[in-house]
Design brief:
mainly alpha; 69% helix; 0% strand; elongated
């Protein structure tokens, strides 16, 4: 009985592993597919963070040219570079495997929560409390970073960003950071970065 159980157990474990991971080739194909959208999502997450901070620090922040420009950039990147959640959901993936869909769903969820944040802002604006909108933003950022760490598991993905030279350096540095934790307002935790948050965003 023991001799029969061991091979069956090993097959079962291998089956679970195959469901949790992509092949290196599929991972590389996927990251090439979503790379541009992923980069722009990171940028608008950073810009929106600055808009929230500006609104808290200055009463007239919403009237400043930088604030208005930031809002316009977020809207432009969402519409022209990322697309709607339906657009992203309907993308033709390299394979139809459960592993590929699970990875793509993580990316999709980060976009979904960012849209929820924007919808909350449209309903209340910056005049009233932005707590709900910021809560959705934090969840979007958290899921974005979790997705990034999923990509870090694959050697082929790292090699892809290495081939991009300076442009891919931020991702490789990000892979060295600890896995993110959900935002806790009672703790003052440091931020994990997917890209250089000190860079000035340009249209």
């Amino acid at each position: 009985m023991k001799k029969i159980f061991l091979p069956i157990f090993m097959i079962f474990c291998l089956g679970l592993t195959s469901c949790d991971s992509l092949s290196e080739e599929d991972a590389e194909s996927y990251v090439k597919l979503i790379d541009e959208k992923n980069q722009y999502l990171g940028r608008i997450i950073i810009i929106q963070s600055r808009l929230f901070e500006g609104n808290r620090s200055r009463e007239d922040a919403r009237e400043a040219l930088e604030f208005i420009t930031g809002e316009e950039i977020v809207e432009k990147y969402l519409q022209e570079k990322i697309g709607t959640t339906s657009d992203v959901e309907m993308m033709e993936l390299p394979t139809n495997s459960r592993s590929m869909r699970a990875l793509h769903d993580k990316f999709l969820s980060a976009i979904h929560y960012f849209y929820l944040s924007q919808q909350a802002l449209e309903e209340s604006g910056y005049v009233r409390s932005t707590g709900i909108a910021e809560g959705y933003w934090h969840e979007s950022r958290y899921r974005y970073l979790v997705f990034g760490h999923e990509l870090c598991r694959y050697t082929s993905v790292k090699e892809f960003y290495e081939s991009k030279g300076q442009e891919g350096k931020a991702f490789l540095e990000f892979c060295k950071t600890p896995k993110p934790e959900r935002f806790d307002p009672e703790k003052n935790q440091g931020q994990s970065k997917f890209m250089n948050e000190e860079e000035t965003e340009k249209d």
